[in-house]
Specification:
The complex is a heterodimer of chains A (220) and B (99). Chain A has a domain at 2-151. Chain A has helices spanning 2-29, 34-44, 47-58, 63-88, 92-100, 104-111, 116-146, 159-168, 175-191, 199-213. Helices cover 76% and strands 0% of the residues of chain A. Chain A is globular and about 55 Å long. By secondary structure, chain B is mostly helical. Chain B has one domain. Chain B has helices at residues 2-21, 30-53, 63-76, 81-98, and strands spanning 54-55, 58-59. A two-stranded antiparallel sheet of chain B has the order 1-2. In chain B, strand 1 (54-55) and strand 2 form a beta hairpin. The longest helix of chain B is centred in the middle third of the chain and has 24 residues, at 30-53. Classes of the chains: A mainly alpha (220), B mainly alpha (99).
């Protein structure tokens, strides 16, 4: 049981390490330094937010818009934390450390097990495996891309939207989320000619808030 | 750029820490749960669209669209993440080299 949990954790770690290669390459390609790229993976340590920050800034958006998008994407980690807290039962320094490891992968592995002990092991093993592989992959990707003359000639500017598509696709199976995604895309595309770069994505966030607050049919 | 790196990192960590620290009843509100589920979907979808079709204030269909099309096929075929990303980059590079 323990061996199976650890094996799964290492497998997920290696997969995210490969993903981190593309983050490191994209981040340096759009103008972040190698040090900034590595600090993002160490300190922010939540992939979608990191891709969003470098993506928004890289396409000419204001740094503040990039930060806002990254933090809004990070709100899902807060919801994961609320779910994980009763399972992890951590306090003090342990809580500070555990909080940093609350990401998509560790949450999925922790909640996939019925046995609380296996769940806790899944959380820590996955979180640490991803942390090590994510940061190693980022450094290799950043160093590799920084020696390239023109990242655009390798099509790296299309890698980020492809990454976002892969992240969002599994969430589109429900009709409601698919409709929200479609309206969010329309809002972002329609506002692009009229507002500063980076703002269209934040307008899309308002679509999600409005949809979440909307009374559901049949709620009455 | 450093300010954005640090501000974003602090913001994301504070959210993670808040999650494992707040009382459980926060999640009892279905609106909080729904917004939490829909927010990443809306943001990621909008990022796909703007980073593929926007160049500053202009909407364009260029080599990146070919990359996104390849990515969509790869996602539909349940290809591994790296195949999706590398396929999109390769398709974009090829279209760019040919045009």
């Amino acid at each position: 049981m323990r061996a199976a949990v650890v094996r799964d954790a290492v497998g997920i770690g290696v997969a995210t390490g490969a993903y981190a290669l593309s983050f490191g390459a994209i981040s340096t390609a759009v103008g972040f330094s190698i040090a900034q790229t590595c600090v993002l993976s160490l300190a922010m340590f939540t992939g979608a937010s990191q891709f969003a920050l470098v993506g928004v800034v890289g396409t000419g958006g204001a740094a503040s818009a990039g930060v806002a998008t990254a933090v809004l994407l990070g709100t899902r980690n807060a919801l994961y934390g609320v779910r994980l807290a009763p399972l992890l039962r951590v306090s003090g320094l342990h809580r500070l450390g555990a909080a940093h490891l609350v990401i998509d992968e560790s949450t999925a592995m922790a909640t996939a097990r019925d046995d609380p002990r296996a769940g806790r092991l899944g959380f820590w093993a996955t979180g640490l495996a991803v942390f090590v592989c994510w940061n190693t992959g980022t450094a290799i990707g950043a160093l590799g891309a920084s020696v390239l003359a023109d990242p655009r000639s390798l099509g790296l500017d299309a890698a980020a939207p492809a990454a976002f598509l892969a992240l969002v696709a599994p969430r589109l199976r429900h009709r409601e989320t698919a409709v929200v995604a479609a309206i969010a895309v329309l809002a972002a595309v329609a506002s692009t000619p009229f507002v500063a770069a980076g703002i269209p994505v934040l307008l899309a966030a308002l679509v999600a808030v409005a949809a979440g607050l909307r009374p559901r049919t049949g709620d009455g | 750029m450093w300010a954005a790196v640090l501000a974003g990192s602090v913001g994301c960590y504070v959210l993670k820490l808040a999650g494992v620290s707040v009382p459980q009843r926060v999640l009892a509100d279905p609106r909080v749960r729904r917004i939490g589920a829909l927010l990443p979907v809306a943001l990621l979808s909008a990022l796909v669209a703007t980073q593929t079709f926007a160049t500053g204030h202009d909407l364009t269909v260029d080599a990146r669209a070919a990359g996104l099309a390849v990515a969509a096929v790869a996602v539909f075929a349940r290809a591994p993440f790296l195949v999706v990303v590398a396929g999109a980059a390769a398709a974009t590079a090829i279209v760019r080299a040919l045009t």
